[in-house]
Design goal:
- By secondary structure, the chain is α/β, with parallel strands linked by helices.
- It folds into two domains: 58 residues, DNA polymerase, domain 1 (Orthogonal Bundle); 283 residues, Aldolase class I (TIM Barrel), CATH 3.20.20.
- Helices cover 37% and strands 18% of the residues.
- Helix 2 crosses helix 4, helix 7 runs parallel beside helix 9 and helix 10 runs parallel beside helix 11.
- The protein starts with a helix and ends with a helix.
- It binds iron/sulfur cluster.
- Iron/sulfur cluster binds next to loops.
Length: 358
Amino acid sequence: MHSNITTKTPPALIGMDHADLLHLCQQAEVKSVHAKQLNAWVFRHGITDTRQIPDLPHALYDYLDGHVGQLKPECMANRMAEDGTHKMLLRMPDGKEVETVLIPGPKRLTQCISTQVGCAVGCQFCLTATAGLTRNLSAAEMVSQVMTARDISDQEIRNLVLMGMGEPLHNYEEVAKFVRIVTDPLGLAFSPHRVTLSTSGLVPGIYRMIEDELPCNLAVSLNATTDDVRSQIIPINAKYPIAELMTAVREYIKFKDKNRVLIEYVMLGGINDSSEDARRLITLLDGLGCTINLLPFNPFSGTTFQRPDDATVSAFRSILVNAGMVTVVRKSKGDEISAACGQLKTEVTARRSKASFG
Ligand code: SF4
């Protein structure tokens, strides 16, 4: 019913990169210097009502009135865990909801951004996968997650990770635009070293990142060391098997010139957590200088996967560390607020349907 609201409304200013803002100035027949002014007021100061931006030429105010819109998602749920993890459920103008999470670090926050409503990849250990893909998010909707979190939080957001709902490389154009907007020094000005795109292994997308010199880091959600196991838990592995994926990672590292690629490894009890797996992982990553992030599985209702016990995680990590691999075990943050990808959305939806059925 609401599906075409976004296409009928004028494009949101927060989804525009510097080239788009320059184009607006050209169309309004004003000097291009005003594009910089728009960049600063919209992204640095968060003023998205164009009439509130001071000192623009009248012709530009008038042009903006008719040609750009605002995008302010509604915050439907807002939870803070004891460890400071802060999760928000945001409703977009067409009624679709996405999650974004603020994860505390020693001094600054990391924000996890969603790139799609749902996801088509179908990873077996992921709650978001259970509902399939509804639609892609626009660059503006991704930027709106950052701007909403910035308004709500009193701490500086220092890192952005595209690891929320969705496979970023399935929505390449909008994700690339988002990356360019957030790293634009005239606007939100995140360092490209502090923006990380995480993929489940879409090989052509990795080559596209190289070709486009996309200003961000790469993370690969590997999660298995044999094609047999990986294809069972991440179906796209049948199309892009581990060897092809690792070739793309090697090419990416060559292009990035010593920039580390992050390898994420969700540990599933009895599936991919053996000492043989750890040794195969060492062989796969030999010489790449990657950082390995071990993520003991965070079980959700209905899953048959289990979290490995602490001793297994620790033994797995030791094998990697002893082989000289930089390995971090990510502590599960925000368990009590359903912080795993897709959990808050599922919980809120379940509560709503319970309420509507009495
Ligand atoms: S883990 Fe990521 S890529 Fe896999 S289904 Fe979930 S959201 Fe999609």
